[in-house]
Design a protein that fits this description.
It contains six helices and seven strands; from the N terminus they run ββββααααβββαα. The chain has 217 residues and is an alpha+beta fold. The chain has one domain. Strands 2-1-5-6-7-4-3 form a seven-stranded antiparallel beta sheet. A hairpin with a 5-residue loop joins strand 5 and strand 6. It starts with 13 loop residues before the first strand and ends in a 16-residue tail after the last helix. The mean pLDDT is 87.
Length: 217
């Protein structure tokens, strides 16, 4: 059944992978279905409460450490019914492999590092991953690091290719403390923080009567 002509267009959340130096877009990973829930935790980076620093109780050391967790579903049923590739030949393997690539270096990087080590180098720079940007609507565009990835494959075709799966993603927001102010990711974080501040300014405030008091004095 087709959607009504005036139905709003559904946008999808996902990840944009950027070149960490040039900032160019390398790949877009869109979620097939938006998650029903999104869990966010903000851990304050404050000064107060530490020994010898009681006079600094109202100061922040830096941006809060924010983590995001979500569960996404992937289903090849429609693609199989339509007879389209690559679902017919390999199911969801390409989709899952794309996500797995977010949490480990490439084989080329490993082979290159091994070659450098074999040549007698004492210090090898770790492989640099693309900068991942989590996009969940226009108000939430933020650089992240994937810290956790778990995949539950729930159904398979006759060749044991997965055709339905659930993916749990854990993300840690990267701030200017991690990326610096001059990087593309640092600029994205500052923009994200400014967007949150603009939204906070639109919130309707309460008054003392709501709190059951006449004032604080």
């Amino acid at each position: 059944m087709s959607a009504p002509p005036n139905a709003p267009k559904l946008i999808k959340g996902g990840l944009a992978l950027l070149d960490p130096l040039a900032g160019s877009v390398l790949r877009i990973i869109a979620l097939q279905y938006n998650p029903d829930t999104l869990s966010r935790t903000l851990q304050v980076k404050g000064v107060g409460g530490e020994a010898g620093e009681r006079s600094e109780a109202l100061r922040f050391k830096g941006p809060a450490v924010e983590t995001i967790k979500l569960e996404a579903e992937i289903d090849a049923t429609d693609a199989l019914a339509a007879g389209t590739e690559p679902a017919i030949s390999v199911g969801l393997h390409p989709d899952l492999a794309t996500l797995e690539a977010l949490v480990q270096p490439t084989s080329a990087a490993l082979i290159a590092a091994n070659g450098i080590a074999a040549g007698g180098s004492l210090e090898i720079a770790p492989a640099m991953a693309p900068l991942a940007v989590f996009v969940f609507g226009p108000q939430r565009i933020v650089p992240v690091r994937v810290t956790e990835l778990s995949i539950t494959e729930e159904a398979f075709d006759t060749q044991l290719n997965p055709i339905r799966a659930k993916v749990n993603l854990g993300l840690r927001v990267l701030s200017v403390d991690d990326l610096g102010f001059d990087s593309r990711g640092g600029g994205l974080f500052v923009g994200y923080l400014q967007a949150r501040e603009r939204l906070a300014a639109r919130a309707v405030g309460g008054d003392f009567r709501t709190l059951g008091i006449s004032g604080i004095g």
